[in-house]
Specification:
By secondary structure, this protein is mainly alpha-helical. The protein has 2 domains: 60 residues, Arc Repressor Mutant, subunit A (Orthogonal Bundle), CATH 1.10.10.60; 110 residues, Tetracycline Repressor, domain 2, CATH 1.10.357.10. Helices cover 65% and strands 0% of the residues. It contains 12 helices and no strands. The longest helix has 28 residues. The radius of gyration is 26 Å and the shape is elongated. The protein starts with a helix and ends in a 5-residue tail after the last helix.
Length: 219
Amino acid sequence: MTQLDLDARLAGTANAVPPNAVPANRVGRPLDLTRDADILDAALDVLAEEGFDGMTIDMVAARAKAGKATLYRRWPSKTELVIDAVACMKNSDLNLNDLPDTGTLRGDFIAMMKPAPIRDASQKLRVMAGLVSLIARNPDLAEAARAAVIAPRAEINRRFLQRAIDRGELSADIDIPLVSSISPSMITYRTMMLGKPVDRDYLITVLDKIVLPAAGLGQ
């Protein structure tokens, strides 16, 4: 046997995997991704109640009835868990393909003011309020919150306004992006900065005294 043959055999032995070895990607139990939805919902509930600074992984684990180790394996930090939770916030009441069409702009807005959507929006805004200390220093979280809370409501308003223009109820030269952002902005300010609830009476007041006049309609 030549020296080259010997070197090759030694190299092959050194690189061989022992029969009882466990591959690196199989160490520990596999992640159970089926629990993600429950854990993220629990994180949102705790966040709405305690705020980001008061929230702990232990609280979320207890609420979701999951092991703390499970959460840490899936989300190494509280910030990562919160970003995922906010990004996955449900908009179950918002179906852009099945919006009310009452024939008037005011009627369309009023038709959206149902108890379930108001409660859903209020919960989302409580979550946002709990994130005030983090949003300013975390662009990813700020974008996730905007996409989950502000953007869907503004899009509905935009569609209502465009429909009103198409049927001749509104002038075509109104600033749709500006007017569509009025109510989401005011609701966010009321909840996050003033700490006050949002109910149907408040929404109707904003609609009649601010949104409709801004769109060029009288009270």
